[in-house]
Amino acid sequence: MLEKIEEEIRNCRKCLLWKNRKNAVPGEGNIDAELMLIGEAPGKTEDEMGRPFVGKAGQLLNEILEKNGIKRQEIYITNVVKCRPPNNRNPLKEEIEKCFPYLKMQIDIIRPKIIVTLGNVATYSLLPLYGFKSTSITRLRGKVLSSPLHQIKILPTYHPAACIYNPELKNAIAEDFGKVRELLNL
Ligand code: URA
Ligand code: SF4
After folding, report:
1. All domains of the chain in start order, with CATH
2. What are the helix (H) ranges across 11-163?
3. Considering the entire predicted model, what is its pTM?
4. Does ligand 2 have an atom closer than 6 angstroms to the CB of 12?
5. Which of 36, 53, 60 to mutate to test the pocket of ligand 1 (most atoms within 8 A of CB)?
6. 132-175 tens-digit pLDDT
7. Ligand 1 atom nearest residue 121's Cα
């Protein structure tokens, strides 16, 4: 079922982003994952490899995960938009809307306990789905938003790409993943 969606994404032409992609990036990981990480859209390296978070931002993410005893193969990692926007521009509203049903299906199949949204695009796209109002990422980040109705916790944090050269944000994202570790009882 998850593989079927991933296959559908690889062949998708629902928005114009298919035209410039080398590879769509459906996402990867464990179907039984308790933790799901959601980024914005594939970058250059991700587009080349067809895998999420394998470039520079991915390296930082890997370091943070490792420090907290979280194994990539035990979680599920994906993005709101599955094909790379030209020159890494932000995905357009229309692209997000066209692509969103894939993410929704992935979440419904995996049924994670915790979703960490990485950065603005993921945070603003996900929160309304669970009835949360989105305000600025600075205010939201590090807060555990609990939805008993949906049996899920959402923790917004900064995008790792934004943290690479910014020590303050780097500390913040590290702190937020410390909370994730606690929530996972690791
Ligand atoms: N940035 C993202 O948002 N997602 C990736 O997969 C890589 C970089
Ligand atoms: Fe399809 Fe999403 Fe790729 Fe657009 S970004 S072509 S909707 S998979």
Report:
1. 2-183 (3.40.470.10)
2. 44-49, 56-67, 93-110, 119-126, 137-140, 160-163
3. 0.97
4. yes
5. 53
6. 998 889 999 999 999 999 999 999 999 999 999 999 999 999 99
7. 3
